[in-house]
Amino acid sequence: MEASPSGAQQAPEIVSSVPGTFAHGVWTERHPALLRRLTEATPYGPRQRDALDALLTETLHGTVAALPEHAQDAALWNGPWDRGHYGRRWLQAPFLWAESYFYRRLRTATGYADPQEDGGARRGVDPFAPFKEAELAGEGVDEQLAALDGLDGADEAERTDALLLGALWGNRADLGFLLTSDEASGDRPLVADERPALHRLLAGAAERGVVPGRIVLVADNAGRELIADLLLLAHLLETGTATEVLLHVKPHPYYVSDAVPADVLAAVRRIAAAPAAAGRAGRLLTGALREGRLLVRSHPFSCAPLGYAAMPGDLRADFASAALTLLKGDLNYRRLVGDRHWPATTPFAEVTAGFPGPLGALRTLKSEVVTGLAASTAAALDDSGEEWRTNGQHALIQVREAEAE
After folding, report:
1. For 129-400, CATH number?
2. Which residues neighbour 368 within 8 Å (Cβ) at sequence distance 6 or greater?
3. Hey, where are the domains in the chain?
4. Closest CA relative to residue 221, chosen from 44, 60, 362
5. Secondary structure E strands in 179-331
6. How many whole angstroms separate alpha carbon 143 and alpha carbon 88?
7. What is the pLDDT of residues 63-79, one digit of tens each?
8. Considering Cα of 29, then 32, then 35, then 36, what sign does the dihedral take?
9. pLDDT in tens, 305-340
10. Using alpha carbons only, how large is the chain's radius of gyration in Å?
């Protein structure tokens, strides 16, 4: 069994079988909308369209089928990532596990992974590329990059804070979430705001860590969010706050808009092509990639259906080497604290016990899981009448300054 954060057995895992819950709606609303958009955006042939239809039918009405033994990662899914859910109804399996496996099966259905009768013509072709490319080419990115000029007169602390908030709220640009939701309008006060602690960790990063000055950022989405992340990293490198950055992205297309290595290069080119401050940041990032000060990682565990408590030793060593690890986005948060029905006041440090080294979570709330809130904040949000945990209009910055003993 997967290791659990401290006290994890006190909170049940989230499953998708209860109508009216957010998790249930992902299967009955979001996934059908996603598959419609996929077939509209890409001229898939009968084989791919039939496979996508069969996958949707299986998830809603059938049982979880195992990967065939010839699948490229069958040893992982039928080995250490298997939690005994094959043969069960999809909606009865833990939400985190089942949703992750859905995207793995989608890669087979679209021809991205595994042998196909068409000779593998679609192998390695990102099925979500049309969505990512459209966002990256959009006017919103031009405005985002131009806004960087407004920070030219700010001091270093103000710039750091503004770029942190940009990276945080950039997490709203989640194409999977936007399939069934309107984009949030206007930034609200953070439900948990531990920026002072995060600034302390950043201020001491150059003298801390197994590799002093190494900062790890675990990215979430491509497009506007990744651009915001890269602008933050460029600032940290330029100021000497970080001497080296490890940028972790997904090795395969995942959750619609999750960033893969090709998305990093596309985003850096987009930034470097901009004028003024953004162009300077893009050139700095290009140089950092060439010099090895910005290293892109894509570990297989990044697409695992498990929490970070089950991470393998080599990934743990990456995080343990750093002065600070920043985890972006909703899915990384779920994997960090455990995808469970935690009381909102459960201490963040308790559920992140065992994660190696200091860490910060920057997350827009788009699923039911949340920890570390003040009792008064949680009560006010519960009394508000809105779906505050899942509507994408609230966010948090949480920090654990040292590894729990």
Report:
1. 3.40.50.10880
2. 14, 21, 22, 23, 341, 389, 390
3. 8-109, 129-400
4. 362
5. 192-193, 214-218, 244-248, 294-297, 324-328
6. 47
7. 999 999 989 899 999 99
8. negative
9. 999 999 999 999 999 999 999 999 999 999 999 999
10. 21
